[in-house]
Design brief:
Blueprint lengths: L4 E2 L19 E2 L1 H4 L2 H9 L10 H23 L12 H14 L9 H6 L18 H13 L4 H27 L2 H13 L1 H7 L5 H35 L10 H4 L7 H14 L5 H23 L4 H27 L2 H5 L8 H4 L10 H18 L22 E5 L13 E6 L4 H21 L2 H14 L19 H16 L6 H25 L7 E3 H6 L8
Antiparallel strand pairs: 1-2, 3-4, 4-5
Helix pairs in contact: 2-10, 3-7, 3-8, 4-6, 6-7, 7-8, 7-9, 7-10, 8-20, 8-21, 10-12, 10-13, 12-13, 12-14, 13-14, 13-19, 18-19, 18-20, 19-20, 20-21
InterPro entries: ArnT-like_N, PMT-like, PMT_4TMC
Keywords: Cell membrane, Glycosyltransferase, Membrane, Transferase, Transmembrane, Transmembrane helix
Main location: membrane
Length: about 550
């Protein structure tokens, strides 16, 4: 009968239209190692967006644009409310203004917030300020202040609102790539657009929204690299097979497989990871998690392609280049983000090396030794950060929103605009939409079973994003933590929820009644989430409402 090769039997992706089977499940070597057959095994029947009818192509761009516009309206309308620094804006906004003026953090006099809120930020001291977070997020805030001024809240928060809006666009495109379903991509973008936790972080100039954006961008780049690498593998093995007499690569060529060349999307992911780590060091966990994920994708690609030494070959020809493409690139980008500190004369610890000569490390440039000392001191600070805070929240409570952070709360007096009753409230609470967050928490369990039982790589990719952002916090149980840290992996929670909505939606091959029921249920869930967001919107955006209305929205005692 001759040699035969079994084709891949990968599970259908959530919400994907499954084409009818074409031909037998087994193929002769002459067919199995053609470029077309290899591409079919490695990336399925994926087509370029250009191959779709113009009417469908329009939705590929219209849906991401519409979800972004909705998210942008929610984030930019009344962005200057409240007209004062809220919560940790007192640190990051003022640091960003220091960047605009001098390129590094400088100190502030007592009661500087009053002057800053009054539109007079030019009261910087000449002394440097010691800070424990890298510069990227603060430089992004500074960009908004440079465009719209440092004397108004819109300027302070513009970068956060723009970044939050762009992250909705990114997530919609990523969902379209993952699920190959326009309705599911629309659901992903819309759910992130209306979620309160993401909304609050997009309307407040803290660092975490910028961290989330660069992590999401890195994930999107790795998704593009996955398909690009598999196309290259199919093309190169196909050329080897075409040049062979028996229409299959030689045994020596299948031992480890070909080199795939420079992976430009992986380099882009390394740049994004460097910017993420340059925003907050917690991005290091994503660098490790995403690095392992992309190598596993490559190992599996070589296995499916029929390469015998797919483990060793993949580690040498994919794993090592992946490390070089991501880790050193991220390190170089991270170091470059400290350019303002390097160019300064008076930044904190800038001249530490000159005052502390070292026989052991003296070969290093003084600027790098000073920066290394700065990082060591910042690491010690983070390790010892365990002071009590009224809104600290254990990582165990994050998925159920056990203790969201209150960014702002005031009791306006009767007679002020919006307050027509004796008791009113104006608040910003970083609580998410309960339907989205609690639904996502349940979805993670479903994804675990789908990944372990069905070997669906999409479920594994989403779980990797959640795990890289969530699990490391359990290593530091004594550290003071806050719920808003969870925004770094919130897009992956939304993807987990949408994955399960895809399971509810069903396939095109299902009976009509099944498809119709799935559409109704998904539409009902998304509509319910939007309506619930409208209910919570006042306590996300500091609207003035009667105190009793505020209490109606405090569903758990720990939210107060």
């Amino acid at each position: 009968m001759g040699l035969v090769t079994q084709t891949s039997m990968r599970p259908a992706e959530a919400g994907q239209t499954i084409p009818p089977a074409r031909g037998p499940w087994i193929a002769r070597p002459a067919e199995a190692f053609s470029a077309t057959a290899l591409r079919e095994r490695l990336i399925g029947s994926t087509r370029s967006w250009r191959d779709y009818p113009p009417s469908l192509r329009l939705w590929f761009w219209l849906v991401p644009a519409l979800t972004s516009v909705i998210g942008g309206v929610l984030r930019f309308v009344r962005l200057d409310t409240p007209h004062s620094l809220v919560f940790d804006e007192t640190y990051y906004v003022k640091d960003a203004y220091s960047y605009v003026v001098s390129g590094y953090e400088r100190g502030w006099p007592d009661k500087a917030n009053d002057s800053f809120n009054a539109g007079n930020p030019a009261i910087l001291l000449d002394t440097p300020e010691y800070v424990v977070h890298p510069p990227v997020g603060k430089w992004m805030i500074a960009g908004g202040m440079w465009l719209f001024g440092a004397d108004n809240p819109f300027g302070w928060r513009f970068a956060a609102a723009l970044t939050g809006t762009l992250s909705i666009l990114l997530l919609t495109l990523i969902a379209l790539k993952l699920f190959r379903s326009v309705p599911l991509a629309a659901a992903a973008g819309l759910l992130l657009a209306v979620d309160g936790h993401h909304l609050v972080m997009s309307r407040t100039s803290l660092l975490d929204i910028f961290l989330m954006f660069w992590l999401l961008a890195a994930f999107g780049a790795l998704l593009l690299d996955r398909d690009d690498g598999r196309r290259r593998l199919a093309a190169r093995l196909g050329r080897l097979a075409a040049a062979s007499r028996n229409a299959r690569p030689a045994a020596s060529q299948l031992l480890a497989g070909p080199w795939l060349g420079i992976r430009w999307w992986r380099l882009a992911a390394g740049v994004c990871m460097g910017l993420a780590i340059g925003t907050k060091w917690s991005g290091l966990f994503f660098l490790a998690g995403f690095g392992v994920l992309t190598v596993l994708w490559d190992l599996n690609a070589r296995r499916v392609a029929g390469i015998r030494g797919w483990v060793s070959g993949g580690i040498i020809k994919d794993g090592l280049p992946a490390f070089v493409s991501m880790v050193p690139v991220a390190a170089v980008v991270y170091t470059a983000t400290w350019t303002g500190w390097f160019r300064s004369e008076g930044a904190y610890f800038r001249r530490w090396a000159q005052s502390n000569p070292s026989a052991e490390w003296g070969w290093l440039p003084d600027s790098l030794r000073s920066l290394a000392h700065y990082h060591l001191e910042a690491y010690k600070f983070h390790q010892g950060l365990g002071s009590e805070h009224p809104y600290e929240a254990s990582a165990w409570s994050w998925l159920v929103m056990g203790r969201p952070t209150s960014f702002f709360y005031q009791k306006p007096e009767q007679g002020v605009p919006g307050c027509d009753v004796p008791n009113c409230a104006s608040a910003i609470l970083s609580v998410g939409n309960p339907m989205i967050w609690w639904g996502a928490a349940i979805s993670l369990v479903v994804l675990l079973f789908w990944w372990a039982g069905r070997r669906d790589w999409r479920a594994g990719a989403i779980l990797a994003g959640v795990g890289a952002g969530y699990l490391p916090w359990f290593l530091y149980p004594e550290r003071t933590m806050f719920f808003f840290y969870a925004v770094s992996f919130e897009p992956f929670l939304v993807l987990a929820l949408v994955y399960c909505l895809g399971l509810v939606l069903g396939r095109d091959t299902d009976p009509l009644w099944r498809r119709r029921s799935g559409v109704y249920l998904v539409a009902l869930f998304v509509a319910g989430a939007v309506l619930l967001s409208a209910f919570f919107y006042p306590v996300w955006t500091a609207e003035t409402i009667p105190y009793q209305e505020w209490r109606y929205r405090m569903w758990m005692p720990s939210w107060i």
